[in-house]
Design brief:
Layout: E1 4-10, H1 20-26, E2 32-39, H2 40-43, H3 51-71, E3 76-80, H4 82-92, E4 94-101, H5 106-121, E5 125-129, H6 151-163, H7 209-218, H8 231-236, H9 241-250, H10 254-272, H11 294-302, H12 308-320, H13 325-338, H14 343-353, H15 359-370, H16 387-392, H17 397-402, H18 418-433
Helix pairs in contact: 4-5, 6-10, 9-10, 10-15, 12-13, 13-15, 14-15
Flavin-adenine dinucleotide binds near residues 219, 262 and 356.
Length: about 425
């Protein structure tokens, strides 16, 4: 007879410590088989040298090594659709319960529902836990149960709710001996996935006390490189949000803490309003007559608009997979307002390029810059790409780094005139939304 086991399914929580679902699995009655599935449907849509796939792959190999060397175990790595992998697993093992952490994106919600149904049909329980956020789903809503659509009251209620909880850290170390003993669980090479090692690397995060203390003063200046670079680590779970919030509070920096709350704000917006994945939160904005000029879109993607701060941002993105938040706001506004290109085009380009791509934050922020989303500034506030330089890159350090030719005759001429583009935008937006 097969020995009963439990499974822990790693997804966006690639760490061994302070991992809620992993902790619950390890404390259960049966030995735990940790697994990871490279979802073939998701991989199909990605470039073959995607830095995020390399990052996930390398992180898993490091985790496997720790479990092999220190706990005579490992992580089983599969490639396929989750359904096909679970079909094989239920044939090979007697599985009592599958443990995992909740994922709130529309695709993930449907995937998990399907897996839960399949497991139930095979007499296996599916236990899910909150790990990715401090507050999920309906936990921070108005008194009448309605979701917040504006950030500041959401943030205040979030903070009030936070005072009432004891933020537990889930120390797994004392339970790691409850893993199945097998150091030779299935593994894969990147090439087995049809991928190659990316030349771009996801940078390590460095959230020092000094960074948090100086965050408010420096965060708006792209040349200072004074933000945390936490994005990919929160996305793939190599950092625990609980530990990060504790750190922010220890340094008494409300602004850094509030950025982490923005992340949860947009996550609950996408969860409550999944239609915003493809549609404007404010329906009238879907009647805007976008110009969608493909040549201009290409120039924007390549950082060749003739507006140096916009071009610097796009070149930084293309070369490194990162762009400073201040510049993300400007390039986004420039695309939607100066060029009148649909926010969905920009959203898709960022989704392909950003190492810290996070569906809820990307959609939420793109709709914010387009004016179509929650809590957006009125549409007639249009960023001026020249005065933004005076405010945020006065000594031209950031621009010189990414667009060294910007003061030379060889530099591209401006693809639109600011004043004309501004007036055109106001007219088109007004026709649609007022
Ligand atoms: P820090 O400034 O150090 O902030 C720490 C963390 O707080 C971030 O890693 C992030 O998790 C969170 N955070 C900060 N600002 C925001 C914000 N405005 N919205 C949501 N979370 C925030 N952020 C993403 O994580 N993924 C995206 O795909 C994404 N797309 C964006 C698209 C546009 C058009 C704009 C204007 C912003 C986008 N942002 C996105 C938000 C923000 O620009 C990045 O989180 C930030 O620049 C990442 O750098 P950092 O990790 O050094 O951030």
């Amino acid at each position: 007879m097969k020995q009963p086991i439990n499974i822990f399914w790693f997804r966006r929580d690639l760490r061994l410590d302070d991992n809620r679902g992993f902790y619950e699995a390890l404390k259960s009655d049966h030995p735990v088989l940790p697994i990871f599935i490279f979802d073939s449907e998701i991989l199909e849509s990605l470039p073959k040298d995607d830095a995020r796939v390399t990052f996930i792959y390398n992180t898993l190999q490091t985790m496997r090594k720790t479990l092999q060397d220190e706990h005579s175990s490992s992580i089983a790595i599969y490639h396929g659709t989750p359904e096909s992998v679970f079909k094989k697993l239920v044939e090979s093992y007697e599985i009592n319960t599958v443990f995992t952490n909740r994922d709130y994106e529309p695709y993930a919600i449907k995937r998990d529902k399907d897996i839960e149904t399949f497991l139930e049909e095979n007499n296996t329980a599916f236990n899910t836990y909150k790990d990715q956020v401090i507050f999920e789903e309906n936990e921070v809503v108005k008194n009448d149960g309605d979701p917040y659509r504006v950030y500041t009251p959401f943030m205040k209620t979030w903070k009030a709710a936070f005072k009432t909880i004891d933020l537990e850290i889930y120390y797994t170390n004392s339970y790691l001996d409850n893993l199945v003993e097998n150091t030779r669980l299935p593994n894969l090479e990147l090439s087995d996935l049809g991928f190659e090692k990316s030349t771009q690397e996801i940078t390590d995060y460095d959230v020092t006390p000094t960074l948090i203390q100086e965050y408010e003063a420096k965060r708006n200046f792209p040349a200072k490189d004074a933000t945390s670079r936490l994005g990919p680590h929160l996305r793939f779970g190599t950092v625990s949000i609980r530990k990060m919030v504790k750190k922010a509070i220890a340094e008494k920096n409300e602004i850094f803490w509030q950025e982490l709350i923005w992340r949860e704000f947009f996550m609950q917006i996408l969860w409550h309003f999944p239609h915003t994945l493809t549609k404007s939160f404010k329906p009238k904005y879907d009647t805007i007559k976008w110009r969608n000029n493909e040549t201009e879109f290409k120039a924007w993607c390549q950082g060749k608009t003739g507006y140096p701060l916009v071009d610097a941002g796009m070149r930084e993105l293309n070369e490194t997979g990162f762009m400073h938040n201040r510049v993300r706001m400007l390039v986004g506004s420039f695309l939607c307002k100066h060029l009148l290109i649909d926010w969905r085009w920009g959203e898709a380009y960022f989704a392909e390029k950003l190492h810290d791509y996070e569906m809820a934050s990307n959609i939420g922020n793109w709709q914010w810059v387009a004016g179509s989303g929650v809590d957006a500034a009125p549409y007639f506030r249009i960023f001026n790409p020249t005065t933004q330089i005076e405010k945020f890159d006065k000594d031209l350090k950031y621009i010189s780094k990414w667009v060294p030719e910007f003061q030379e005759l060889t530099y591209t001429s401006q693809i639109v005139d600011h004043k004309e583009a501004r007036e055109r935008c106001l007219k088109v937006y007004k026709e649609a939304v007022s």
